[in-house]
Amino acid sequence: MRLRITHRTEYSYDAPVSYALQRIRLVPSSGPTQTVRSWALRIEGAREEVHFSDQFANDTRLVSVEGAPQMIAIEASGEVETLDKAGVYGKHYGFAPLWLFLRETPLTAPGEGIRALIRTLGEGTEIERLHRLMETVRDRIDYRPGSTSAETVAEEALSLGTGVCQDHSHVFIAASRLLGLPARYVSGYLMMDGVSEQAASHAWAEAHVAGLGWVSFDAANGISPDERYVRVATGRDYRDAMPVSGIRVGQGQEQLAVSITVTQQ
């Protein structure tokens, strides 16, 4: 499947920005499940300082703002050809060793709720238990935009019983690590049925299974990612893979506008 994606993020301020530095992870790479046919990254109101591949092999840019601009726009767009591999991404590569994905982070630290959750999974192969875990997380956390924030931790989301794809992914990751399996967060895009315009990018999780490598699970939708998914960045949790992050110096109020379209070509 060939997918066309446009992702535009605009930051506007009511006063000049003294200084800002933003880290951008918005450029996908070709791999086992996708081939990037074309991609462009356009930045208005800021200048690119550094371009590098981070420890998780994510294409990463640092851009800075200083002085007059009161609007910053970042637009990523292009076409990606995807394959359905039944959720199997495959072999691990990159600078980060597999054992790093066994370590908890502040966003994925398990509590008694997640420990109790894995006790309900029963016996079976690793793949069987991971699929049951995905279904259980989906059942326990209702998708409800606005009910959590980027700072919500996995245990809190499970306790609330509501959240977004970020929360489903963090709970799945925390539980997978308790099962002794390396797990990571994936940020990217999903072409949704009957919807081309979206308000946010998507996220899912992967667990590393012996003999298969990385296997993807989208607990928010209860499926393993197929050809409708485009992956952009990975990491231990949301903070490692978030599309745009940064710091800002100044007293001006910030307004954020995001528009995303994902269509089949």
Automatic annotation (TrEMBL):
Pfam families associated with the record: Bact_transglu_N, Transglut_core
Gene3D superfamilies (alphabetical): 3.10.620.30
Name by which UniProt lists this protein: Transglutaminase
Domain Transglutaminase-like: 157-221
Record-linked InterPro entries: Bac_transglu_N, Papain-like_cys_pep_sf, Transglutaminase-like
